[in-house]
Amino acid sequence: MPWSLFAVVLNDFRLYQLVSPNLPVGAFTYSQGLEWAVESGWITDADSLREWLQSVLWHGIAQLELPVLIRAMAATRRDDLDAFSDWTGELTAARETRELRAEESQRGAAFVRLLKALPIELEESWLHAIASSQVAAMAYAGHQWSIAPEALSRGYLWAWLEGAVVAGVKLVPLGQTQGQQLMAQLSGELDRAVTHAFSVTDEQVGSSNLALAIASSLHETQYTRLYRS
Q1: Which of 49, 108, 138, 177 has its Cβ near the most Cβ atoms within 10 Å?
Q2: Cβ proximity of 58 and 193 under 8 Å
Q3: Cβ distance 61 to 151 under 8 Å?
Q4: Cβ neighbours of residue 145 under 8 Å, at least 6 residues apart?
């Protein structure tokens, strides 16, 4: 196999590793407000779950996380720690609730512990910024492993969608087949979301999902919880 083709295949496998649900960063322990939304009656079936996830996708991830991921990768490529820290800090600042901010820092710290055990070069001066969020850590790892920003963005979206649907299947609850139907329906929007994320200007980066913010803030004190707050 020519080296160039081997490198492409290896990069694909590294991407699969980064977005695997088995990645030990605790992603499966969070519902991002979904648990409260179900208990409150906002989400009662597959249709309302699909509408919730579409809202999170278009008013949050495509407008905030993906644009920050793209900019953080570009900053890593330029070896620009200041820009990397600014954009990953912007992500944390845009998180409306204590729960969402805690999730960013907890998953980021777990990601750094993982990266230290993998064949990846970690610069000491970057560690604090990398540990600030999973988006920051994925951007850094994606650059180190020569994964294209478009591919990493698609992988990030797929990991989010899979985790969110699994949480919804457990919480509503839904059947496994209904969960797969949701995945099939929503995956058709992922490429458009990536395209949109690349068109977002610096001034437009941000989240505007009020329902998620309310659900997350109330989940912090929800009496009975399966998911972490």
Answers
A1: 138
A2: yes
A3: no
A4: 11, 14, 15, 18, 120
CA distance 108 to 103: 8
pLDDT in tens, 20-78: 988 888 878 889 999 999 999 999 999 999 999 999 999 999 999 999 999 999 999 99
84, 76 Cβ separation under 8 angstroms? yes
Q: What are phi and psi of 44, to 5 degrees?
A: -130, -15
Contact 205, 92 (CB under 8 A): no
Is residue 70 a contact partner of residue 197, using CB atoms and an 8 Å limit?
A: yes
Find the DSSP H helices in the chain.
3-18, 34-39, 46-56, 66-77, 81-94, 98-116, 127-130, 134-144, 149-171, 176-187, 190-199, 210-219
What is the Cα–Cα distance from 20 to 31, expressed in whole angstroms?
17
pTM above 0.85, yes or no: yes
How far is residue 147's CA from residue 152's CA, in Å, rounded to a whole number? 6
Question: Virtual CA dihedral for 198, 204, 205, 207, nearest 10 degrees?
Answer: -120
Looking up tokens 């991830």, which residue turns up?
A: 61
